[in-house]
Design goal:
Rossmann fold; 3 domains; seven-stranded mixed β-sheet; five-stranded parallel β-sheet; 13 helices
């Protein structure tokens, strides 16, 4: 009887071990889940192309067998441009869906909220589009990495392009939240370095999405600036451009503007595009690099439309996430962080590296002027600035980034 009982115990243990192994193998062979959070309903002109970009990249990755022998699945959530909702969505994705990492974000306050969640809950977060310097500096943390060039980087690129202009008296207009405040501060700091004689004669801070174009344009015109630095985008940009043109605000003045050359903001202006503005943007139609031409062709084939800047960002974000997982050889958070630091990966616009010191990528940006062609705005006389040439020194980063972020 004892022998039969012993044999039964051994058999039961073997079966349990086998079932346990199968269950473990089944979990490991399931899809690698990535949680995506963005302002889809609030700013569709920017985020719908972003989603199409990562969906195209996801299809390519899975067609090639996925990563670590597993398919990749992206679970997407809309935070309606509300930081508290972004935090709630992050919690749901991590707790209920068991995602390996988070990605996304568009507005800076939204991105900062997700980054704070990532830090408190020890979850890897790849920020795609939030531009605030604080994301990787003052509020930087070990778990957050950022793809797009920051406001510090993009404003330095713009200042490089305009420092030799005769303009001394500057006015600024920017949305009154983290991104707008950071962009203006960075631009003026960079301008003062190159042009100590520059002075600020007027600043306008409309609430995001609520720009009173008449009042803003009147205040700027009354200050009689030589040049204007604009940070408005979307519907606010359209209102500002139309009212400014109507009242002659831009006549005889240089206007320097963040993001305005990006198709998602330039295309809706059509024939009202502000000719002569010096902008950051995305001249996809005249970038001749083979890898980028392939990206454009595949995007147009898949969606029957032309790409936006957000399309490119979404595509690169997903490819970056997969490159990180591949290098880590695991979805363990600590290994993902170690893999991302200093990682260089390929993209349609060349190699991109995540700096180890502040987790900021070296992704660059295009600087040029707006012109009209066939009744629509385009970028001309543009050049591409490599992001690595516009990043601060390690000493500067250490003065901004808390030691606990490493």
């Amino acid at each position: 009887m004892f022998g039969r009982h012993l044999r039964s115990l051994v058999l039961a243990s073997a079966v349990a071990a086998t079932l346990g192994f199968v269950g473990h193998a089944r979990a490991d062979s399931g899809p690698i889940k990535i949680g995506d959070i963005n302002v889809y309903s609030a700013i569709p002109q920017g985020t719908e192309p972003y989603k199409k970009g990562w969906e195209m990249a996801l299809a390519e990755v899975n067609a090639e067998g996925g990563v670590l022998g597993r398919k990749v699945e992206v679970l997407s959530r809309d935070d309606a441009a509300k930081p508290d909702v972004a935090t709630r969505m992050a919690q749901e994705l991590v707790t209920n869906e068991k995602v390996a990492m988070l990605m996304g974000g568009f507005l800076s306050n939204e991105g900062l909220a997700i980054a704070d969640f990532a830090n408190r809950n020890k979850v890897f977060y790849l920020a795609s589009e939030p531009l605030s310097d604080a994301l990787v500096w003052e509020k930087g943390n070990p778990y957050t990495f950022r793809l797009r060039p920051s406001t510090y980087m993009q404003t330095k690129m713009l200042v490089d392009a305009v420092a030799k202009l005769p303009a001394k008296r500057w006015a600024t207009v920017a949305p009154n939240y983290e991104y707008g405040q950071s962009a203006v501060s960075d631009f003026l700091a960079a301008l003062k370095e190159k042009r100590p004689d520059a002075q600020v004669v007027e600043q306008q801070w409309p609430a995001l999405g609520k720009l009173d174009a008449g009042a803003v344009v009147q205040a700027l015109a009354a200050a009689k600036p030589d040049a204007i630095f604009n940070v408005t985008f979307g519907a606010d940009l359209a209102r500002f451009v139309r009212e400014g043109e109507l009242r002659g605000l831009f006549k005889g003045r240089e206007v320097v503007s963040l993001l305005t050359g990006e198709p998602e903001y330039l295309d809706p202006l059509k024939g009202e595009a502000p000719v002569g503005w010096i902008v950051t943007g995305y001249p996809w139609y005249s970038i001749k690099a083979p890898a980028h031409e392939k990206f454009v062709a595949e995007y147009r084939k898949r969606y029957n439309e032309t790409p936006r800047m957000s399309s490119l960002v979404g595509y690169i974000t997903l490819k970056a996430a997969v490159a990180i997982i591949k290098k880590a050889g695991s979805t363990d958070t600590a290994k993902l962080i170690a893999a991302a630091k200093g990682l260089t990966f390929g993209s349609p616009i060349g190699a991109i590296t995540f700096r180890a010191i502040d987790h900021q990528s070296t992704m660059g940006a295009w600087i040029g002027k707006i012109a009209l062609k066939d009744g629509s705005g385009i970028m001309v006389d543009w050049h591409f600035d490599n992001g690595k040439n516009f990043q601060p020194t390690d000493a500067f980063v250490r003065s901004k980034r808390p030691a606990s972020a490493d």
